Amino acid sequence: MRTTMIAAVAATLFAATSFAQVNQTLSVNKDNRSITVSATDSAFAMADQAVVNIGYQAYGEDEQGAYAEGSRRSNAISDALAAAHIPADTIESQDQNLQPLNEYELKNLPASLKNVKFRITQSWTVRTTPNDAAHVLDVAVKAGANQSGSIGWEMKDPSSLEAAASAKALAHAQAIAARMAEGLHIKVGSLLYASNQPQEIVRPMPMMAMAARAKTADTKQLSISARRVERSSTVFAIFSIE
Questions:
Q1: CA-CA distance, 32 to 192, in Å (whole number)?
Q2: Cα–Cα dist 70/48, whole Å
Q3: What angle do CA 189, 193, 194 make, to 5 degrees?
């Protein structure tokens, strides 16, 4: 099979056990024979890190009242996390907002909130182990975090999973090239060029509101299990023909 390629291409070369980013010039002419293929494959692993989203929503009859209620909840949640020995450097503020309610929101408020005019919200993420995710959520909700629940599942070091996905994709590409060559009654030679594009498979989990009503010590926390993390890689490869 003869192919014609124009220009120098910046590529990711596959070494024996790893990938190296280099500039590679491919000189392909009538004397060079090659097979060009692309393939996609994935690698999986159980998440070893959980990102727990916690937050609250509170109201007030005026701006100062809403801020005061927000301050009370904010400090109650922070104090509860500290008392539970959750490291401060694993907690990150995400958003905080104090604003007046619009006309539509005012018309649709429940009777218990008929006099409020302002809303305050605040949210954080807490990075923890999958085994401790339910505990972090339980502590926050019982302290007043009524807008909590979504959890992101991650790998602390995603590079190994990305490398595994790329290696599987390259092996897949090589198998395709071998089948093509077999059909042409030729033999696949060495790898001339390869590039990979690792991709994260994202499965978002919506935030769910959780009312912090059960505050008794004997209330059981939710049962939460870790999810699989997936990385996908697409490989473009050129093999010589012997």
A1: 11
A2: 33
A3: 115
Classify 29 as helix, strand or coil.
coil
Q: What is the pLDDT of residue 3?
A: 33
- Whether the CB-CB separation of 56 and 121 falls below 8 Å is answered with yes
Dist. CA 219–CA 160, nearest whole Å: 39
Q: Which of 46-60, 120-134, 184-198, 204-218 has the lowest mean pLDDT?
A: 204-218
How much is the pLDDT for 242? Answer: 81
pTM here?
0.69
* Residue 95 token pair: 């958003």
In the block, which residue shows the tokens 């408020």? 109
Q: Which carries the bigger pLDDT value, residue 154 or residue 14?
A: 154
Query: How is residue 160 written in tokens?
Result: 């190994």
Looking at every residue in the chain, the average pLDDT score rounds to 81
CB 94 within 8 A of CB 123: yes
CA distance 182 to 241: 11
Dist. CA 106–CA 114, nearest whole Å = 8
Which structure tokens are listed for 82? 């500290």
Q: Quote the CA–CA distance of 174 and 198 in Å, as a whole number.
A: 18
Element (H, E) at 213: none
Output the pLDDT for position 183: 87
Question: How many angstroms from the chain centroid is the CA of residue 187?
Answer: 41
Instruction: Please state whether 165 falls in left (phi above 0), alpha (psi between -120 and 50) or beta.
Output: alpha
- Using DSSP, state whether 177 is helix, strand or coil: helix
